Amino acid sequence: MEVYLHIPFCRSKCAYCALHSFAGRERLIAPYVAALQQEIRCVGAGQRVDTVYFGGGTPSLLAPAQVGALLETCAAAFSLADGAEITMEAHPATVDAAYLRDVRAAGVNRLSFGVESGHDDTLRRMGRTHTVAQAQQAVAWARAAGFDNVGVDLIYGLPGDTRARWRSTLARALAWSPDHVSAYALAVEPGTPLARRVAAGQERVGDGDLMAALYALAGAALAEAGLQQYELSNWARPGKACRHNVSVWRGGGVLWPGRGRARVRGGGPLCGGRRPGNVPGPDARRAAGRARPLARRGRGAPPQRARDDGRGDVPRPAPHGGGCRRAGSRRALAAGCGRCSAQSWRNSSRSACWSSTATRCA
Ligand code: SF4
Predict the structure, then answer these.
(1) For the residues of 11-44, what is the DSSP string, one character each?
(2) What would the pLDDT profile of 128-138 be if each residue is shown by its tens digit?
(3) CATH number 2.60.210.10 given to 2-249
């Protein structure tokens, strides 16, 4: 069993990003973490867990103490395997040497840095808030902090990418001796600033032939550097493939506490082993505490897309949905109505308990 913890906060939205993340909502990180802990307690039934993955968003916006608290909650709720892989996605502009030492001490043992490009002008055009030098420094700090499993994520086909520029991106990243490289093809997602710029003729992205050539270049350069391809977009040194992702791709059971994911497979007794889906729910107007119970969504629905500016939704902690059967659980919450153990919000303006299930339990 794997656990994915979604941290849907970013300092700003990148031009190409349609992921479920929110900018300018850092003040909600602490209550989100608290609610995430509650959901972990709810879904945890002592299942053996081999990997925990902090994904985002920007998980490195969490304080090390919050990372540690979430891992402690996981350790209490699940049976964490010895040598469990604990991954954190990290933004180079959000870390320093002390931070990386502290999250290493908290239990994170694998880092995945969002580097994306080896060119500062491209990073600026895409709204990335770090430089190539910062990314290089972050990888060096990670090594100094004791991480022996460090990955970099790259995107090919960004505006302005040519074969030569992509080669130099690869060369720069490989010079840092990463254990793992993810190279993803740029997708121009509808509704993003990049899509609007492309539609307006302000940006040009690579056509299929160029994308194929860049992909082939990546394969050749990464293989030459000793990284083995183990998935369409992922290469790793021997023994450094991401165990979490490998399990997910093989259809392993995954628990997805957190805001932006959709379902649980093999989740044990919770909701009959499946979760219909988290819902982004309230818009900004409701974000001030007048949120409504979550609407229904279909089983297996994809993650929700944030508004382009990333500010449209409050990053509500992701509750489970679909009729939790754990009535009478010892984990009934103080703020709950007492009739069920579903997660509920202490500060809801509603007079009665409303739970994370699709319908109120009362
Ligand atoms: S790509 Fe940018 S906006 Fe999207 S999740 Fe990563 S840091 Fe946040």
Answers:
(1) SS--TT--SS-EES-GGGHHHHHHHHHHHHHHH-
(2) 999 999 999 99
(3) no
C-alpha 48 – ligand 1 centre gap (Å): 31
Find, among 234, 259, 230, 250, the residue nearest to 50 by Cα: 250
Ligand 1 atom at minimal distance to the Cα of residue 21: 5
- Residue type (1 letter), 81: A
Residue 45: strand, helix, or coil: coil
CA 260 to chain centre: 8
Q: Which of 19, 117, 124, 309 to mutate to test the pocket of ligand 1 (most atoms within 8 A of CB)?
A: 19
- CB atoms closer than 10 angstroms to residue 230: 15
- Residue 126, both tokens: 């895409």
Protein residue with least CA distance to atom 6, ligand 1:
57
Among 336, 329, 326, residue whose Cα is nearest residue 362? 336
pTM tops 0.90: no
Give the DSSP letter of residue 265. B
Q: pLDDT per residue over 127-177, tens digit each?
A: 999 999 999 999 999 999 999 999 999 999 999 999 999 999 999 999 999
